[in-house]
């Protein structure tokens, strides 16, 4: 356990209990009768659920509690087998080819690129052999607990029958692509993942809708999917409300720690919500709040796209992962959902739904009888950290403000476990796993510990960012001077 966390636990626990050798950390003892959770996505609702089970009153605030979120626009998969970070050795050599494809799996909006430089520097560093091994261990620690925490939560919400534990197929169209990913599969097997190599013929036997393009595949039986992620989020929101949670509609402007036992969450319309503790679980918007609270976090919106086809004309029994094209297809009760893409353009850029259309065209290559008529297109903001690990921690400056965000592609997968871990932090219970990999302090420039940014590296990235910003302004000024090609 982190020594700083040990000290905080000791300070918060009842002194009499410490003297007598009893470490009691109940809601009554610690005066956490009311906790304000910022964010009504699946992470915030899972935290509310676990706190309520421990006797804590919760208030959940969101600008649109029942509105569109990444929590229910995702592909619905519980990716417990994904323990390899997004940045792996050799990945950066593949990025230029993806970027020059206007509808490829990766896109960076030009106007956002300068702001992205510090994030990209850390992302590149996370792809070293040592770092990717460390991160894989931390991802495995979270994902290995998924079903232990998820199944009881689904049962409480009446959703047990909604979980489809049929595994997933990761598909390859070339032998070269399969060989390139061999190291990643070995890493997964090292961490206890059951990964079964099968031929293209066997893959088509499992999923007859697949066409001849599939060369080989890997079957991962531990993977599962939910029938409809929106139904899951709606059921969790109804559950916590029925158990007494207040669901407040409002846009959070400020989070203020009035004392070590009082937090004020200030809304745009002037209202204030008071609590003993607050948890920031606002997804891709969380970074704006942590900056106000004095914690620097490298958090970006990685926008994902999908298309849901109500009548696809084919049947799938499990999620399909198209490894070389970087997209997935999941059979949901609302239709076949085809999702993927990673677009970095900030929180305010308008979505480019041509990416959704491109996904359906790609899917047709693998699924020849797929009907692509009248798809429902969607785009949402994934909260992405450069090391693929979420932030699950206490604020470095305010002992009664906590963080739970940055899950990237794994919000649904890690929600129940994050809910349990975050609730334990609020209740000052000793954590059940090592929490250092998910610490907010790993982004602090003042630290040079493992997995953190040094002072020199931080300022170097800031200088690069400043130079890039000046270059962008010079380029656009020059364009204005010479005029746009083709303009009179």
Describe the protein's architecture and organization.
The protein has helices spanning about 5-10, 15-20, 25-30, 40-55, 70-75, 95-100, 115-125, 130-145, 145-155, 175-180, 180-190, 200-205, 230-240, 285-290, 355-365, 410-425, 455-480, and strands at about 35-40, 55-60, 75-80, 105-110, 165, 170, 195-200, 215-220, 225, 245-250, 250-260, 260-265, 270-275, 275-280, 300-310, 320, 325-330, 335-345, 375-385, 390-395, 400-405. The chain is built from 17 helices and 21 strands. It starts with a helix and ends in a 6-residue tail after the last helix. It is of the alpha/beta class and about 500 residues long. The protein is globular, with a radius of gyration of 23 Å. About 35% of the residues lie in helices and about 20% in strands. α7 (about 115-125) runs antiparallel to α17 (about 455-480). Strands 4, 6, 7, 8, 15, 16, 17, 18 and 19 form a nine-stranded mixed beta sheet that branches. The chain has a six-stranded mixed beta sheet with strand order 10-2-1-14-21-20, with helices on both faces. A hairpin with a 4-residue loop joins β16 and β17 (about 325-330).
């Amino acid at each position: 356990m982190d020594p700083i966390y040990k000290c905080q636990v000791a300070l918060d626990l009842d002194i009499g209990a410490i003297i007598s050798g009893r470490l009691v950390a109940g809601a009554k003892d610690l005066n956490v009768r009311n906790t304000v959770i910022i964010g009504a996505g699946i992470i915030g609702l899972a935290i509310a659920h676990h706190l309520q089970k421990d006797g804590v009153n919760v208030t959940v605030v969101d600008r649109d509690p029942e509105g569109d979120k990444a929590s229910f626009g995702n592909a619905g998969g519980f990716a417990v087998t994904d323990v390899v970070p997004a940045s792996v050795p050799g990945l950066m050599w593949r990025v230029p080819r993806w970027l020059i494809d206007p509808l490829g799996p990766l896109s960076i909006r030009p106007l956002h690129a300068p702001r992205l430089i510090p994030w990209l520097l850390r992302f590149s560093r996370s792809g070293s052999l040592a770092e990717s091994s460390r991160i894989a261990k931390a991802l495995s620690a979270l994902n290995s607990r998924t079903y232990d925490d998820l199944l009881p939560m689904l049962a409480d919400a009446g959703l047990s029958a909604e979980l489809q534990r049929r595994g997933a197929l990761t598909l390859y169209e070339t032998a070269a692509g399969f060989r390139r990913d061999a190291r990643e599969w070995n890493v997964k097997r090292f961490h206890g993942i059951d990964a079964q190599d099968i031929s293209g013929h066997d893959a088509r036997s499992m999923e007859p809708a697949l066409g001849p393009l599939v060369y080989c595949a890997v079957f991962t039986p531990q993977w599962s999917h939910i029938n409809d992620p929106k139904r899951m989020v709606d059921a969790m929101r109804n559950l916590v409300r029925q158990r007494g949670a207040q669901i407040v509609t409002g846009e959070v402007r400020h989070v203020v720690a009035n004392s070590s036992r009082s937090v004020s969450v200030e809304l745009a319309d002037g209202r204030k919500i008071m609590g003993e503790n607050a948890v920031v679980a606002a997804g891709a918007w969380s970074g704006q709040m942590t900056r106000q609270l004095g914690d620097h976090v490298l958090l970006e919106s990685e926008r994902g796209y999908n298309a849901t086809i109500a009548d696809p004309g084919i049947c799938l029994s499990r999620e399909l992962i198209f490894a070389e094209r970087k997209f997935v297809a999941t059979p949901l009760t609302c239709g076949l959902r085809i999702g993927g893409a990673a677009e970095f353009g900030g929180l305010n850029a308008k979505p480019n739904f041509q990416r959704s259309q491109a996904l359906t065209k790609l899917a047709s290559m693998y699924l020849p009888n797929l009907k692509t008529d009248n798809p429902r297109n969607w785009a949402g903001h994934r909260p992405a950290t450069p090391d693929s690990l979420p932030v699950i921690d206490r604020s470095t400056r305010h002992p009664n403000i906590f963080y739970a965000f940055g899950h990237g592609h794994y919000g649904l997968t890690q929600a129940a476990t994050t809910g349990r871990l975050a609730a334990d932090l609020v209740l000052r219970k000793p954590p059940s796993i090592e929490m250092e990999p998910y610490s907010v302090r790993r982004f602090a420039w003042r630290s040079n510990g493992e997995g953190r940014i040094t002072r020199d590296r931080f300022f170097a990235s800031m200088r690069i960012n400043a130079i890039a910003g000046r270059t962008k302004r010079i380029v656009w000024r020059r364009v204005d001077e010479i005029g746009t090609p083709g303009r009179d």
